[in-house]
């Protein structure tokens, strides 16, 4: 896509939703598998992804400081034959890394980025944290009106491919959410619920 075409695309989309008054921090799949040399899913070759855990740590600290709710998701499969992964497993056999009790340690939380007592953990089986989970109900029961997603804060996400990373953020910002800076997110998280 040319720069002009990209600008035209962004001009036609990418309106701002803005901030509500009751944010929550949603941490999606902050696990060892994505930042570990022994993992086939390691994303550290992308500098933006390699830097993501440090950004996520700042967001977690800000949320806890502001007493903003934190909700963590993690991929988790419990059936020995991986049948609880459905067709997704046929497409991505590496999902076996997330089988409970497999003993590889890659499914565990990234060191230093673990849920604290009282923080909600939502197990999931598919890429979306909402599909087949009670995440929406959890957010509603907490009366949350703004979700800050580690994956939508630009510095707090990553992908193996820098091009895919950039394209995903651009598409999310154009159609589904406001991609915000780490500084803006930290400010809102520290402020908590007014």
A few lines on this structure:
34% of the residues lie in helices and 11% in strands. The termini are far apart. The protein is built from 6 helices and 4 strands, in the order H-E-H-E-H-E-H-E-H-H.
What is the total domain count?
A: 1
Helix and strand pattern: HEHEHEHEHH
CATH class call: Alpha Beta
- Coarse shape: globular
How many whole angstroms does the radius of gyration measure?
A: 17 Å
Averaged pLDDT: 91
The helical percent reads 25-40%
State the strand order across the main sheet.
3-2-1-4
The major beta sheet can be summarized as: 4 strands, parallel
What is the CATH topology classification name? Rossmann fold
Count the strands?
Answer: 4
Beta-strand level of the residues, as a percent range? 5-15%
Q: Which segments are poorly predicted (pLDDT under 50) over 5 or more consecutive residues?
A: none
What count of helical segments does DSSP give? 6
Sheet/helix structural class: alpha/beta
- CATH H-level superfamily title: Isochorismatase-like
- The CATH architecture name reads 3-Layer(aba) Sandwich
